[in-house]
Design brief:
By secondary structure, this protein is α+β, with helices and mostly antiparallel strands. The chain has helices spanning about 1-55, 205-215, 230-235; strands at about 75-80, 90-95, 105-110, 115-120, 125-130, 135-140, 145-150, 160-165, 180-185, 190-195, 200, 225. The chain has 3 helices and 12 strands, in the order αβββββββββββαβα. A hairpin with a 2-residue loop joins strand 10 (about 190-195) and strand 11 (about 200). It is globular and about 55 Å long.
């Protein structure tokens, strides 16, 4: 009986010890999550204020051609806000039809270290998949075609994780490269010869597998852009 009583008391002491250490840790975890949520909420509020302030300016340095350039006049911009990297702080997407290809027609700004920061520029067709932190760009210029899959990380940095390139003229395929895929869906066949994953050359089959994994479960952003006016800023930047 004494042995059983000692065993019972030892088990009770162990349980009390576990409760003593586990409960404060859970409490700390809960406090940490709450603090992070509050911090993200504050960051998002500050970001939206900064975006409004940026768009309220009459001119902006989109190009280096000066304020007289219509591409630098914010009244010509359209915009929308969306959280593109799942950090609970929205990004600002600007569309500028008055710009030109080299300067880009679309820009993505994020809010980092209490500043509005440019993270992405494009002059091509772009699709956003916020639930995957994914940006997909497709473009062509002077006979060269490409497709880029870009990850937008929570740290505010972007990285091209998969891309392919090709030409609409087989004679332009660089020597030493082999055409791995021919896309005949458009007006002209496109001869794809370059495939990369994280900047390293790969095969078409591996690229295809990588893209499939990136797009699995991805949901395209359906946000509409809005002309930059004071009423639209008040209505949609929130």
């Amino acid at each position: 009986m004494k042995k059983q009583m000692k065993k019972f008391l030892a088990m009770m002491l162990c349980a009390i010890t576990v409760c003593t250490f586990v409960l404060p840790q859970n409490q700390f975890l809960s406090t940490s999550i709450t603090a992070n949520a509050a911090s993200a909420k504050t960051q998002n509020r500050n970001a939206l204020k900064a975006y409004k302030k940026l768009l309220a300016k009459k001119t902006f340095n989109w190009t280096t051609n000066g304020s007289a350039d219509s591409a630098n006049q914010t009244a010509n911009y359209s915009f929308f806000c969306v959280d593109l990297n799942k950090d609970k702080v929205k990004e600002l997407v600007l569309i500028n039809d008055e710009s030109y290809y080299a300067a880009g027609y679309l820009r993505v700004y994020t809010f980092k270290n209490n500043k509005v920061k440019l993270v992405y520029t494009s002059g091509n067709d772009v699709a956003f998949y916020p639930n995957k932190g994914l940006i997909v760009e497709q473009g062509q210029h002077t006979g060269y075609y490409w497709e880029n899959y870009v990850k937008f990380e929570k740290n505010g940095k972007v990285k091209t994780v998969a891309n392919r390139g090709g030409t609409d003229n087989k004679e332009y395929v660089p020597s030493g490269n082999k055409v791995q895929q021919i896309n005949k869906s458009g007006a002209y066949p496109i001869y794809y010869y370059l495939y990369e994953i994280n900047g390293s050359k790969t095969s078409y089959s591996k690229y295809k597998s990588k893209v499939k994994s990136l797009k699995k479960g991805a949901k395209a952003c359906k946000q509409k852009s809005h002309k930059n006016t004071a009423s639209n800023r008040s209505k949609y930047i929130k």
